[in-house]
């Protein structure tokens, strides 16, 4: 039987012409519901992790070390779902959504399996309309800048949706977190087998039918 929320998700997905969207949102709802039933000790552990991810101030060495230790102790935290955390982060968000919301560059890089101390090339070689940019326009074209290589087990974090069907890139764009937009866009491009940037016809859409750029221009 189809639940009311499932029917709503299916209706929205049909409206935007993306049949995979409803399935992915329902998956997010399923794991969020499971998180709600978690024992208090597990919920508290997740909340402490989300506190680090949702930090609007740069993580110092101590907090970064704490975040690393938590991930070593429990690698499943990268796909945790926030529940009942009040104003800290909204229900259904993943840790990467929380970083995108807060503009937490260091936390996002750590979640993506990247070195927070390194400088990565975040200039996607296409403009917002999908046209090639002149290679001379790439300001990061120097030996100190590294190309992003996302570990295979972390690529999925870029496409996990929240309950509104938004990727972390959607959330960063909606919140005006430009640095996170650049990082997430570059990470999604680097993780695509064809090196396709998530813009234009290849941009993800949420349940409202909006792309990350759509959120950026209306927020």
Write up what this structure looks like:
This protein has 219 residues and is an all-alpha fold. Helices cover 46% and strands 2% of the residues. It has nine helices and two strands; from the N terminus they run ααααααββααα. A two-stranded parallel sheet has the order 1-2. α5 runs parallel beside α7. The longest helix has 18 residues. It starts with a helix and ends with a helix.
Shape: globular
> Total helix count?
9
Pairing-aware structural class of the strands and helices?
mainly alpha
Largest sheet: 2 strands, parallel
Task: For the largest sheet, list the strands in their spatial order.
Answer: 1-2
Low-confidence stretches: 1-17, 126-143
What pattern of helices and strands is seen along the backbone?
HHHHHHEEHHH
Q: β content, as a range? A: under 5%
N- to C-terminal distance: 37 Å
In short:
The chain is an all-alpha fold.
Keywords:
single chain, 219 residues, mainly alpha, two-stranded parallel ribbon, 9 helices, 2 strands, 46% helix, globular, disordered N terminus
Question: How is the secondary structure organized here?
Answer:
Layout: H1 4-16, H2 19-36, H3 40-53, H4 61-73, H5 95-102, H6 105-111, E1 119-120, E2 145-146, H7 168-174, H8 178-191, H9 212-218
Parallel strand pairs: 1-2
Helix pairs in contact: 1-2, 5-6, 5-7, 7-8, 7-9
